[in-house]
Prior knowledge:
- By secondary structure, the chain is mainly β.
- Helices cover 5% and strands 49% of the residues.
- The chain has one helix at residues 78-94; strands at residues 2-8, 16-20, 27-33, 45-47, 54-57, 65-74, 100-106, 111-118, 123-126, 132-141, 146-147, 152-158, 161-162, 168-181, 190-195, 201-212, 227-232, 238-243, 251-256, 261-265, 274-275, 287-299, 305-311, 314-315.
- The longest helix is centred in the first third of the chain and has 17 residues, at 78-94.
- It is globular.
- It starts with a strand and ends with a strand.
Amino acid sequence: MITSVTLTPAYSATAVTLHGGATASTRNLSKVEGLFGPPSPRVVERARPGVDGVILDETRFLDGRTIVLEGELWGSTGGAALEDLSTISEAFTSTLLSEGKLTVTYENGTVRWCNVKLVDSVQVAVEGSSRLVQYQATLKAADPRLYETTLRTVSFPITPFTGPSGIVYTMGTTSATNLVNSGTAPTSPTVTITVPLTANQQITELLRFTVTPPSGYQSISPWGATQVFEWTSTAGTDIASRNSTTATNNAVAVVDSAKRTVTQTLTNGSWSQRPGATSEFPLLYPGTSTGTWTYKTTMSSATGASCQFTYYYAYW
C-alpha cells in the first residue's frame, strides 16, 4: 500500500527515509495510524440547560491530524541499529523547532505530504542481542489536509494606462476564473501582489479580495456565497505603497491563507496598512472557485503590477 515515507526537517533539504526506498532492508514502518481519512471533528455544541441534549450542534471543522508511526530498524549489529535510531530521532526532534514535511508515496505512484511536529516521546524497544530496534513516534499535523506535490499558479497582470500629466493609472475590478481545486478537501491559497518599483513613486492599492466557492459548497461555507479579504487603514487601503526616488527592488505582499498571515517586503519605502479585523482568509473548495479583486494602481512609470495565486490540491 505504501512504497515510501520520508521526513524532511525544516533546516535541511535532505529527507530522512522512514520506510522503503534505498533503506527498505533496514528501515520499515510496520504500522501507520491517522494518516489517511479525515481526522476527528472539532466538536462545538451549545448545551440545553436543565435537560438532556444540546440546543445547537455547531460542529463544522476538523481537528488537527494525529499520526502514529511504528517503525523497525535493522542493523548489522544491535549497536548499528541504535546509531541509526539516533539519525531518525534527530529528524523527529527537529520538528519541535519548525514543522517537518512528511511525504508518503503510494504503490500506484501517488504522492501526498503534510507538515508535522513531534508531540510525544519516541518510545523505543530493544531485545538483548537482537539487531532489531523498534520505535513508536506520535506526530501532529496542525493542518489536517494532505497535499499533492504540484504547486498550481494562476497569474493576472494589472495593465496600466496613461492619464493626465503623463501619470500612469490602472483602476477597476478584475475577475479571476479557473481557480480549480481537483482534490477532495478545501485548500488554502497564497495570494501574492507584486509591484515593480523601478523609479520614483509607485503605489498600488488593493481595496478588496473576494472568493466565491462552487455553488455546491456555498450552503456549508462559513462565509456563505463569498469570502472577503479587505485591507483597511485611515489613510486608504494600500497593500503595496512606496515613495522613493532610489527604488531598486519590487514591493511584494503575500497573503498566506493557511497560516492566516500577511508578509510585506520592500526596500527604501514604507507600508501603510494591515488587513481589517473583519477580513477572512480565503479557501478554495473542491471544484472551481472565482476570485475577484478591486484595486487602484497609480504609478510614475508603466511597469504595471500583478496578482498571483498559488495553491496545492488538497485531500482528506
